């Protein structure tokens, strides 16, 4: 394992030098918070980025959707609606708000 770790810095240096002269075409899968922040950082580095999101909203599991999935508990009905949200209306946290947030200034400037 150590053998592979020793090659990482040289590979990273090589990759950085390549991206400085030739922008990469990067696909980001998912427009959840990680995908959005990754996209922001790649764009700051002047990379070509395409984001793929299956939902009609960005935010991933942090998007509240009041709908619930149909009563098809086994998921056998191919026409069932799929609700992809981990939030619910009475969800609360016992952590301080500053620990549950971070700044995303400039995120709306992405094109």
UniProtKB/TrEMBL annotation:
Cross-referenced Pfam families: NAD_binding_8
InterPro entries linked to this entry: FAD/NAD-bd_sf, FMO-like
Top-level taxon: Eukaryota
Membrane-crossing segments per the record: 20-38
Keywords assigned by UniProt, alphabetized: FAD, Flavoprotein, Membrane, Monooxygenase, Oxidoreductase, Transmembrane, Transmembrane helix
GO molecular function: monooxygenase activity
Keyword hit for Chaperone: no
Identification of the protein by name: Flavin monooxygenase FMO
Organism ancestry: Eukaryota, Viridiplantae, Streptophyta, Embryophyta, Tracheophyta
């Amino acid at each position: 394992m150590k053998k592979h770790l020793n090659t990482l810095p040289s590979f990273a240096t090589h990759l950085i030098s390549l991206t400085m002269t030739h922008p990469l075409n990067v696909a980001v899968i998912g427009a959840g918070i990680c995908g959005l922040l990754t996209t922001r950082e790649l764009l700051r580095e002047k990379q070509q980025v395409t984001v793929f999101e299956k939902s009609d909203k960005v935010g991933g599991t942090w998007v509240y959707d009041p709908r619930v999935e149909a009563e098809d508990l086994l998921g056998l009905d191919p026409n069932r609606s799929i609700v992809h949200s981990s939030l619910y209306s009475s969800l609360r946290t016992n952590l301080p708000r500053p620990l549950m947030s971070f700044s995303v200034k400039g995120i709306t400037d992405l094109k």
